[in-house]
């Protein structure tokens, strides 16, 4: 059997369908948006190749226009997928405008072979090269591994498509027909196939990076309030403690416990209790400085470590938090939220962070015993 370009185009459709199947099976449909968008891009491209092949069986104008529109829309979805992992805003006029303009122009100039080839190749080339720039430009967020792999994959394809556009401008008579087994078509298909494969691999890497980051976030933060969990707060705190001891710098630990929290739960329900905890933690994060570590020590008890600070700095945090609770949190909840606090500073010769925490905790206990809604030095 003679291998013609049409057979290769059909193989492109089969490849894409298989990759989509593998992605749906391997990554699942409930994945985060970047991978879903990439999968949708491949589905659109599979539809495009099927329509382009079908154009040879009937309704050439309709099928070829549908194929071109699906192809260009597929690249719009690749752009959306990349933007999702790059965490950048998308340009809707670009996403919608390029496919619509391409489809309309393709339909209008269909009878002119060179013109319709030019329309499609210019649209795809522009999309791919723009996407390549977005991925590779300095300062883009995201790990360089997936960005470079995706950028090179799409850049190679974009360059190939741009060459096709140039070829149809300078030598329209020698530009091969779609079904001809001409080397331009063969090279084009090989590059497209490699680009789809490498691009998928790159987006799988981005997906894995994102999943890793998410796991790290889950392992280090408190699920309810978003502040550091106790284990991670201790780990980070220990690093600050060692630095403070080595360089003879100050360090303060502030322990905070919401007053009569059981009563809040019992009176307003557990959900309102959770909301009070969340708002309390948010207010606490607002009133500390950038290097300070805020953690949830357990239940309704929070801990703050202030590097390079003294007791007065911690007491200032305490005052700001009381003001924030009174002005911002209590009106939202509909009842007053107060807390007791214990504060302790690193002392000369102290060998463990636990010692400072223990003193701050004792001071907190004294604050509770002393009538609550106050701070005590330990
Ligand atoms: N809603 C909610 N409640 C919690 C959570 N963690 C702990 N609690 C509750 O917090 C309450 C703490 O009660 P206590 O230790 O008696 O303290 P308190 O009522 O604040 O009294 P004082 O600390 O002495 O002022 C308990 O009822 C816990 O069930 C949580 O994540 N969400």
UniProtKB/TrEMBL annotation:
Q: Which residues cross the membrane?
A: 6-25, 37-57, 63-80, 92-109, 115-136, 148-171, 183-207
Keyword check for Lipoprotein: no
What EC designation does it have?
2.7.7.65
Enumerate the SMART domains for this protein. Answer: GGDEF
In terms of domain of life, where is this protein from?
Bacteria
Output the Gene Ontology terms for molecular function: diguanylate cyclase activity
| EC class | transferase
Give UniProt keywords alphabetically: Membrane, Nucleotidyltransferase, Transferase, Transmembrane, Transmembrane helix
Q: Which CDD domains match?
A: GGDEF
The reaction(s) annotated as catalysed by this protein in its Swiss-Prot or TrEMBL entry are: 2 GTP = 3',3'-c-di-GMP + 2 diphosphate
InterPro entries, per the entry: Diguanylate_Cyclase (IPR050469), GGDEF_dom (IPR000160), Nucleotide_cyclase (IPR029787), Rev_trsase/Diguanyl_cyclase (IPR043128)
The record places domain GGDEF at 249-378
PANTHER family named in the record: DIGUANYLATE CYCLASE DGCM-RELATED, REGULATORY COMPONENTS OF SENSORY TRANSDUCTION SYSTEM
What's the name of the protein? Answer: diguanylate cyclase
Question: To which species is this protein native?
Answer: Piscinibacter gummiphilus
């Amino acid at each position: 059997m003679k291998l013609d370009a049409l057979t290769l185009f059909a193989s492109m459709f089969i490849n894409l369908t298989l990759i989509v199947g593998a992605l749906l099976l391997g990554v699942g449909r409930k994945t985060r948006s970047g991978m879903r968008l990439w999968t949708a891009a491949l589905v659109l491209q599979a539809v495009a190749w099927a329509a382009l092949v079908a154009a040879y069986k009937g309704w050439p104008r309709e099928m070829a226009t549908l194929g071109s529109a699906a192809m260009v829309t597929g690249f719009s979805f690749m752009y959306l997928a990349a933007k999702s992992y790059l965490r950048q805003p998308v340009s809707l006029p670009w996403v919608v405008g390029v496919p619509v303009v391409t489809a309309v122009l393709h339909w209008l100039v269909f009878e002119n072979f060179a013109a319709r080839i030019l329309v499609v190749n210019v649209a795809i080339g522009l999309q791919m090269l723009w996407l390549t720039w977005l991925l590779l430009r300095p300062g883009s967020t995201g790990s360089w591994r997936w960005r470079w792999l995706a950028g090179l994959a799409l850049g190679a394809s974009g360059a190939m498509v741009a060459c096709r556009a140039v070829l149809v401008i300078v030598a329209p008579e020698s530009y091969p027909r779609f079904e001809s087994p001409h080397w331009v078509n063969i090279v084009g298909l090989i590059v497209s196939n490699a680009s789809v494969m490498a691009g998928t691999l790159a987006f799988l890497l981005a997906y894995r990076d994102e999943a890793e980051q998410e796991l790290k976030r889950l392992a280090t933060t408190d699920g309810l309030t978003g502040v550091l969990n106790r284990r991670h707060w201790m780990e980070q705190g220990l690093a600050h403690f060692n630095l403070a001891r080595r360089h003879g710098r100050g360090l303060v630990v502030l322990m905070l416990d919401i007053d009569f929290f059981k009563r809040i739960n019992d009176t307003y329900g557990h959900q309102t209790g959770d909301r009070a905890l969340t708002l309390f933690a948010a207010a606490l994060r607002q009133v500390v400085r950038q290097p300070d570590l805020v953690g949830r020590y357990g239940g309704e008890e929070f801990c703050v470590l202030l590097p390079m600070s003294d007791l007065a700095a911690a007491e200032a945090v305490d005052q700001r938090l009381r003001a924030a609770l009174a002005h911002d949190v209590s009106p939202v909840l509909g009842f007053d939220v107060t807390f007791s606090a214990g504060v302790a500073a690193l002392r000369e010769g102290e060998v463990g962070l636990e010692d400072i925490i223990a003193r701050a905790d004792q001071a907190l206990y004294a604050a509770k015993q002393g009538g609550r809604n106050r701070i005590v030095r330990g």
